[in-house]
Amino acid sequence: MLTTITEGLLCCLLGKTPNAVGPLESSLESRDGFTFLEVKPGRILRIHHALPDRPEPPESPVAPERGAVRCKRRITLYRNGQLLIENLGPESLACQNSAEVAEPEAPDPAGIPSKDGVAKRRKRKPKKVVTVDCEKRITSCKGTHGDVVLFFIHGVGGSLDIWKEQLEFFSKLGYEVVAPDLAGHGCSSAPPVAAAYTFYALAEDMRAVFKRYAKKRNILVGHSYGVSFCTFLAHEYPELVHKVIMINGGGPTALEPSLCSIFNLPPCVLHCLSPCLAWSFLKAGFARQGAKEKQLLKEGNAFNVSSFVLRATMSGQYWPEGDELYHAELAVPVLLVHGMHDKFVPVEEDQRMAEILLIAFLKVIDEGSHMVMLECPDTVNTLLHEFVLWEPD
């Protein structure tokens, strides 16, 4: 603790960032199953890429009718932020999740008087009307399919090591898996400027990783902040993203950094408070706080980032496009996994996400919390695998 305070004071006096991760060599060679990918000059990400050693089996032809989902919905956005989602025609019966999530057009408080003296209500004009016409064939993705890749994206303060159990599980089943470290996290390089950790900068990193390893059918798995990058990729590449899995990702709201947050403190102060922050994360991120959970936190390399990177990443969470309308336009099946004891993300937020999305399934794990993939790996792996193999009747 004394060492931490001393380093924090030196940080204030010298203007340096303590414990910053230094830049790595721009080598793309695989080391112990890890690859270092240079997404931009000097910006290098550590990536776990496991390619199963198996022959490519010939793909069996699938009838166009099997696994077909045809949905057409009209989304009306009003100026007060309300959404009216209407599933149109008999084709909407193929949708797995079709609920009107907003009230119909509300009348204007200022009524227009009629001839008989009764005030008529004037309907509000919508701000924007979007029509989504989805005709997508959703097939089962088995480990023997050579065109399937699973991407795992962690959140703030984590690393690809939090996916250890999932990476091993799916690799043994014959799946190709890809898991990157975000910039400044894990063993990726840490640029010394705050602009390198905005949502858009990190999203472009994930776009580069996706374009490097994507195949015909890609399944995105995100945790916490990583869910936003999965949503971004699914929106940008609807033909390549086959399914999305969101673990404790929260509601379909636009990202905006909090003005009254502890992460707005100077990096030197955050560094002094790092032991307290780590303990707070342990209490809020795990349902129990025993020796096992502390070991899981250590092995997962979670919350082991510099104070500068933590502050810049939290302050850079600005993504106004990612609102409810943005999520309602997604035409890809989504599995929502929520740990019931999560103190960061209330279950009501994931329930709202399930209402907004076109095809969504919400699974709640009673004994899990925010780091549910570390607490309940077997349960999470089973849920993920069932969804990977799922296809509509």
Automatic annotation (TrEMBL):
It comes from the Eukaryota. One of its GO terms (molecular function) is carboxylic ester hydrolase activity. One of its GO terms (cellular component) is mitochondrion. Keywords: Hydrolase. Residues 149-251 form the AB hydrolase-1 domain. One of its GO terms (biological process) is negative regulation of NLRP3 inflammasome complex assembly. InterPro entries: AB_hydrolase_1, AB_hydrolase_fold, Epox_hydrolase-like. The keyword Oxidoreductase does not apply. Residues 99-123 are annotated as: Disordered. It holds the Pfam family Abhydrolase_1. Belongs to the AB hydrolase superfamily. This is Protein ABHD8.
